Amino acid sequence: MKSSFFLLSLTALTFASVVPHPATAQVVTAPEQVQSGTYNVEPGHTQVGFSVLHFGFTNYQGVFSDVSGTLDLNDKNPAASHLSVSIPVGSVQTTSAKLTEELKGDQWFNAAQYPNATFESTSVRRTGKADAIVTGNLTLHGVTKPETLKVHFIGAGVNALDKKYTAGFEATGTIKRSDFGVKMYVPYVSDAVQLRIAGAFEKQD
């Protein structure tokens, strides 16, 4: 019994020494302390969430993943920063397997014909200490339209697990899906689509 307890304690101490506690991570939350440079999207912790009003009853949510792209970040002159991302439409997920497959079909996103949605920034305007308005061209379902995102800087620092310098942001916005030719069930399923994006970016050497 004592030997088992000793082994468990030793295992716990070893694990604790290998995996750092999140509180020990050196994260800065002041934008002026972020390192300028070129960043790649870290797809494992980047999500593009969306929400629509479903028949007036619920705000139904889904998510896209496997995002790729780059962020050229200029902390001294945010207006000179540039964002370019690609979102595989076939990565869409909801809590309904049937609906998930329907969304990939030709009545909705038509992932076979239009496999990727893209966003290319055209301007960055700082609106607060940690906030900015990012305007760019969104291409979805074969249609390109200018759209605007409200972006909030969350934090940056060396990831305690993979040792890579990472910067994180949250973005929100609203688009009209009919602008992109995705009109199924409008207005019963709302034309307005609310976006909430968690963006993680790893600095390149």
TrEMBL record:
Keyword annotations of the record: Signal
SMART domains named among the record's database cross-references: YceI
Domain of life: Bacteria
InterPro entries: Lipid/polyisoprenoid-bd_YceI (IPR007372), TTHA0802/YceI-like_sf (IPR036761)
Domain Lipid/polyisoprenoid-binding YceI-like positions: 38-202
Alphabetized PANTHER family for the sequence: PROTEIN YCEI
The protein's name: Polyisoprenoid-binding protein
Protein source organism: Gluconobacter kanchanaburiensis NBRC 103587
